[in-house]
Amino acid sequence: STSTLGESVRPDFPILERRFGPHPLVYLDNAATAQKPRAVLDALVDYYSGLNSNIGRGYYRLSMAATDAYEAARETVRRAINAEHADEVVFTAGTTAAINLLADTFGRSVLTAGDRIVVTGMEHNSNMLPWRRLCETTGAELVVVPVGAAGRVELERFTAALDPGVRLAAVAHVSNVLGTVNPVREMIRAAHGHGIPVVVDGAQAVPHRPVDVRDLDADFYCFSGHKIYGPMGIGVLYGKRELLSRLAPYQVGGGTVKGVTLEEPVAYVPVPARLEAGTPHVAGSVGLAAAFDYVEDLGWDVVRRHDDLLVGAAVEALESVARVRIIGDPAAEPSGIVSFVVDGIHPYDVGGHLDGHGVAVRSGVHCANVFIDTFGEVGTVRLSFAVYNTEAEIDLVRRALTTVRPGFWTAEYPTERFLATD
Ligand code: PMP
C-alpha cells in the first residue's frame, strides 16, 4: 500500500524547498525536532504582528487580547491531551524544563534519604539526570528497570521494582532511540496499586499518537512543542489538579504572587501561573496550538497510517542492504523511528555519508547513553519520520547506504569521547 500524505503536505513546509548542492533536503531527524508548517509560522508572525504585549498585567485591550490568546492556547492543549481542566496545563520551555521542574518541586517534596525513584533503562538523559541529581542531593536511590530484548520495558520487571520504598516512577512513553512504545497505561495502573505517582516523558509519543492523559491516568505528563511541528522553546507539563495544586513554586518572580510586602510571607497565586514565573513564551504557546490544529486537521488516523507505512517501508529497505542491522523490533508497534547500525562502520560515518546525499539523520547515542550501552553498540543511525516524509525518500536512503564505506570515525573509534559528548 502507499500513502499520499507525504507528497500532499510537503508544500506546507517551506524548509523542504532547501537544497544541499544537487540534493534536495531529505529530513529524517524528526525525533530531534520536526519542521514547521506555514500555519505555525503564520501563527508566530500574526502574534508578533498583531497581538504582542505582555500578558496578565496590562489593563489595556492589546494586553487583554494577548492574554486571551495565551489562555486559548492552553485550552487547545487541554483538549488535545484530554486533560480535565485547563489549569492542569503548565507551559514550560520543553520536556527537559518540565521534568526539572517536577524533580525540584514534586520530587523534592516526596523524597527523603533511603527512598527510591524508579526509572527505566531506556530514558533520555532529560528523564534520567534530573532524578539522579535529586537522589544525590536527598540521599534517595535511583532504581533503573532493565529493558527487554525487544527494546521495550516489560511490565513484570517494572512491577517487580515497585517496593514500599518507592515514592515515584518516571518513564518514557515512547523510546527516542527505537520508537518502541511502553505499556504506560498498565505501568501506571501497577504503580497506582502501590500508591506510587508516575511522571511520563511523552516527548516522542505526542507527535505520533493522540495522547489521552485521563485514559492513561498519568499523574504528570511532559512534552515539547518543537517535536510536534510547533516552535522551539515551548513545552507542556500536565499534572492532575490535586497534585499540581500542591506544588511549591519552582522559580519565583513576576507573575507568581498575589502580593508582596517585606514583612509578611509571600502569598503565591494558584497554578498554573504559580509555576510560570516571568514572561512566558506567549507566541510559542500560540504556535503550539496551531501545530495541534494542523495535525488534527490532517487527522490522527491518517497520520498514524502514514507513520506505520513509512516504518514498514524503512524496515524492508534496510533489510535489503548488506551489513545493515536493525536494532530492536520497530515493526512490532511502530512509532515513527527505525534505528540501525552498519556493521564495521561507525554511525557517525554513516550519518556523514547520508548527509552527502542531502539526507539528515541523527547518529550516535541520542542522549540515551545508558540505553545504547545495553545493546553493546557505540551508537545507532536513526531514521525518524514526520507527515511530510515519503517512500521515495526511504528508497533514496537505501540507495545511498549501498555505497557507504568506513571513514574517519570508523578508523579512530575514540569510544570514550563520543559516548561522553552526544
Ligand atoms: N525525552 C525524550 C524521550 C526526548 O526524545 C527528548 C528530546 N530529544 C527529550 C526528553 C528532551 O526534550 P527537549 O530537548 O525538547 O527538552
UniProtKB/TrEMBL annotation:
<keyword id="KW-0808">Transferase</keyword>
<dbReference type="InterPro" id="IPR010970">
    <property type="entry name" value="Cys_dSase_SufS"/>
</dbReference>
<dbReference type="GO" id="GO:0031071">
    <property type="term" value="F:cysteine desulfurase activity"/>
</dbReference>
<dbReference type="InterPro" id="IPR015422">
    <property type="entry name" value="PyrdxlP-dep_Trfase_small"/>
</dbReference>
<comment type="similarity">
    <text>Belongs to the class-V pyridoxal-phosphate-dependent aminotransferase family. Csd subfamily.</text>
</comment>
<dbReference type="InterPro" id="IPR015421">
    <property type="entry name" value="PyrdxlP-dep_Trfase_major"/>
</dbReference>
<keyword id="KW-0456">Lyase</keyword>
<keyword id="KW-0663">Pyridoxal phosphate</keyword>
<dbReference type="GO" id="GO:0016829">
    <property type="term" value="F:lyase activity"/>
</dbReference>
<dbReference type="GO" id="GO:0006534">
    <property type="term" value="P:cysteine metabolic process"/>
</dbReference>
<protein>
    <recommendedName>
        <fullName>cysteine desulfurase</fullName>
        <ecNumber>2.8.1.7</ecNumber>
    </recommendedName>
</protein>
<feature type="domain" description="Aminotransferase class V">
    <location>
        <begin position="26"/>
        <end position="396"/>
    </location>
</feature>
<dbReference type="InterPro" id="IPR015424">
    <property type="entry name" value="PyrdxlP-dep_Trfase"/>
</dbReference>
<dbReference type="Pfam" id="PF00266">
    <property type="entry name" value="Aminotran_5"/>
</dbReference>
<dbReference type="GO" id="GO:0030170">
    <property type="term" value="F:pyridoxal phosphate binding"/>
</dbReference>
<dbReference type="InterPro" id="IPR000192">
    <property type="entry name" value="Aminotrans_V_dom"/>
</dbReference>
